[in-house]
Amino acid sequence: MSRYRFEETHRRTNKRPMTNPNVYALLNSHFPADRSVTCMEPPHGGMWTFADVETESARYANLMRERGVVPGDRVAVQVEKSPQALVLYLACLRAGAVYLPLNPAYPERELDYFLGDAEPRMTVVRPESVNALTALCERHGTGEPLSLGTHDDGTLIEASRAMPDDFDTVVRAPDDLAALLYTSGTTGKPKGAMLTHANLYSNAKVLHEAWGFRKGDVLLHMLPLFHTHGLFVACHTALLNASPMIFRPRFDAAEACRLLPRATVFMGVPTFYVRLLGQSGFGAEHCASVRLFVSGSAPLLEQTFEEFRERTGHTILERYGMTECGMSTSNPLDGERRAGTVGFPLAGVDLRVTGDDGAPVGPGEVGGIEFRGPNVFTGYWRMPEKTAEEFTSDGYFRSGDLGTISEDGYISIVGRGKDLVISGGFNVYPKEVELLIDKLDGVVESAVIGLPHPDFGEQVTAVVVRESDATGPTEQAVIDALKADLAGFKVPKQVFFADELPRNSMGKVQKSVLREQLA
Ligand code: AMP
Q1: Which entry of 3, 133, 342, 373 is 20 to 30 Å from 294 by CA?
Q2: Which residues line ligand 1 (CB under 6 A)?
Q3: Quick check: pTM over 0.85?
């Protein structure tokens, strides 16, 4: 491992040993001295120790190298959550590759775009997808995909068994890319957010400190691994703390009630909290060992915040972040956690709320949220113009979210300039759905909005103008047509028909009017 290499270098040159800025090397330097302690506890036995994480990630990294992956190459991964999937991420870091996680819900059409845009050197998919995706991978020059299942199976596992179980973690510079995470936009075309080793590690350190991670912490991990929240926020803080993670493939409210008494920290999207409250009998006794509940990725309703406090005695800590920047703000660990707010900027983050003229607005006034800091990404993959548009001349990133800052500094998110719908913690960019609806026979145009939903937070809803009611598609026909091309969470749950869409004087569809009419 790099540590030993540096020690050797130190002996030979008698210079101070440097630290490898590779985020894996930095996380690894915080692994417990006794590597036999638990790192991940999967559902059906087979504990993963920190030693296992080291040796298994070394095998995968050796395999990547053998398959021609060199530092800077992208490795695309569309697999179900498992301990091996997290280890694969760590192995990519060790090999100096750029990790590109993809939601398993993405169908082939969406993968086609990601593989074409990112040009990965290697692709790892679910065993059951290999046949369907081999031609696509070969067309994009990434070769036959490797596979990784959830039962320690797949060609990645088989091939890695013959690999050595040690690997010198590749030295990367702080500004080298560690991960490429796609996020859609108002144009409907997903953009790859380029995150560096320094982005990831600085955010991990800041959150570890801000949320008071301590000896004895145990994280209940039920978030997906293809998103910032579950992958970086949750795993990095736990790894940095050398804490065990109770690792579950997905959120399940009954299972969470059963496991919470063994955890001290829980992180979730608001939907998780709504569902926990939906469990009859859920209350303080389930949460007796927990010291911190964190919520983010979508707005937490004040009603949920209050009800959770009444039922459990715990005040959920809400934070705010995004793919491009990791976490930017958080309610305080000590001090008032205020409902409906996302707290204060994290250490090292400069945050401002500006008006249309670019100047900061006064307390309580709504404006665009902008920030800069070590957490902020370096730009969108191969989109220098788009990147330039999203940054101000003095280096602040325009988040696209609208917010306010109170007299005493609490930040609230009041809307989304970018029109995003967040359903069950997953982002849906209306334009992407609208473009597909508009292509259907008999459709003139469409607007996709989010309507309040008690469980998902928002429900994807379409309003469609047809050429004629008699010949245009029915609600079911629209839904069925989209299912083939879009991940399930993006498909509208309801379709309304209208003679025309409301527009403002500039011709822009007034989605706020639609939301009011249909809510
Ligand atoms: P993502 O890039 O998937 O992490 O989504 C980022 C977007 O989620 C942000 O730009 C916000 O619009 C939204 N978001 C994240 N956290 C919160 C929060 N605590 N409250 C309201 N919106 C949030």
Answers
A1: 373
A2: 183, 228, 296-299, 318, 320-323, 342, 399, 401, 413, 416, 420, 422, 427
A3: yes
